[in-house]
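User: Show me an example of a complex going from sequences to structure tokens.

Assistant: Sure. Here are the input components:
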Amino acid sequence: MSSPILLAVEDLTVSFDGFKAVDGLSLYLERNEVRVVIGPNGAGKTTLLDLICGKTRATDGSIKFKDLELTKMAEHQIVHKGVGRKFQTPSIYENLTVAQNLELSYPSGRTVFGSLFFRRTPKINQRVREIAEQIYLADDLDKSAGLLSHGQKQWLEIGMLLIQDPELLMLDEPVAGMSVVERERTAGLLKEISQNRSVLVIEHDMDFVKDIAHKVTVLHQGKLLAEGKMDDIQKNERVIEVYLGH
Amino acid sequence: MSTQPVMKASWMDKFGGRGKLIQILIIAVLILGVLPLFSDIFRLNLYGKYLTYAFVAAGLVLCWGYGGILSLGQGIFFGLGGYCMAMFLKLEASSPENTAIQSTPGIPDFMDWNQLTELPWFWQPFHSFTATLILIVAVPALFAFLIGVAMFKRRVGGVYFAIITQAIASIMTILIIGQQGYTGGINGITDLRSLMGWDIQTDFAKYVLYFACCAALILCLLAGQFILNSRYGQLLIAMRDQEDRVRFSGYDVANIKIFVFVAASVISAIGGAFFTLQVGFMSPSFVGTVASIEMVIFCAVGGRLSLIGAAYGAFLVNLAKSSLSESFPQLWVVAMGALFIAVVMLFPRGLAGLVSDYAAPVRNWFASAFKRETVAASGPETRPSAPKPPESKARDDVSMASAQESH
């Protein structure tokens, strides 16, 4: 472990037809840190995740992950380097079972011929069961994923990322639409999985943010508005003005 | 699909389990046994022609049904396979002795009519049968690969891809018709008589070719089943439903699409080669837009999520086409359109869907009744009234049901 910085975003800018969704943003994420990004709608939070995982290409600036420049890399290569990203709406394979969803996300047999001649080993079965237990779906392995509840689908997608053991996990509003009980379990899950990896979360639910965040970054109109501990952020006058409200 | 480690992996599972293999066996018995026994060679030769379209339909099941890539240009690949075979047969039929009356003996007759004085370079490899066999697969594979790279690496998909393939099919036809001296033009490549000195117009040869075509079809269906039951097959379903999730799980989605498109094209080309052998000529009308769209209809009618269903679909629609167009030539086009609308509106899972809806309960009833008799535990008063489908079947049905919604 050479540097404590896992992800370094510097002067990142993306412009869509002149509109700068992210504008000269810099952000540093340490290893094993849980960072929550908050901000009003249109602040550029999701775009930031899109830029890091390669879904959107940066107009300017750099994203360094363990000294690897991500802005020029293809999406699947970024994943291979250890960046996992969960989408806002649960993106799971509804026509496959929970076990198949997890197994397809297992990082082997990722080429065409590798997947044609892929063999399920006891080790992979073992790993699928471990993850399923972690995401509270151990009893639903053979269930079609389309039949899961909304909260369970969110967990499943987190599980599909966990099975790849990423060093950086990015979650876009993981508790949106969840019940109170599900939120608590998700917070528990996040604390558990952030033991040995960095997590970057977008979230609106302040109680949840307070519960999990080590540090909070506030975005506004594509720019950094404030950064720091949750308590300080909540007292920050500009943050109160544009986002939290009085 | 269970995750229990105790489950013993059977070789059958690689092809979709015993049930699917029995279905393929039933097809084999029908086309290798029943049809030859109950039809004369004229009819059987026609059936053989219909079955060559089953190859294309099976390819479309992989590419469109599972991969979600609608190609309206499968005629291109059917045609490439067919033309490769036709070029070999034509060269054989154009030996210097056979073409002695031409101003340039030894080249195909249509070249002579078009004032060509030597064989073009791209015809040269078709002197060799081995090279021809390789090219029947390699030419369409390479062409599909190029189209696939150009389209999928740039993330062109959906309707745009369908329209582009349709346009390419149209371009191919225009090219073939326009370059009459090199391709035989609108008449196609005709007058094909023998395969390595073996007369392919005798009844015996027609039998042999029919059986060879059937055997190749069975092998292609098995290969398709193998693909669908691998991790790759699951990836196709996953990609159809959540392309971004697959991409951000570390897969190069373009490569997955290119492969399935190439595989579908190769299977179609094999069908095309058998078409030429059995029908005795190849022409641009089997390549173009109309032919390509008809191929999609064969697949849709049979069931685009069932390789086996698509094979039946291709056969039955062609059978209907022949009988209808023999008696009411104008009516056929209208009937074909109506059939397609009916399939889309009323039974989007095609014949395979109808069969699994209506036949599965009957089969399960038999299965449970049989079980009851062998176990012989309780009295006859407990009749199974509504047996539930087995678990693996249920998964298929779910995937079929939501596939309709997503398209």
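The lines above are the inputs; the final block is the predicted structure for all two components together. Strands of chain A lie at 5-16, 19-30, 34-38, 60-65, 68-69, 83-86, 168-172, 198-202, 215-220, 223-228.
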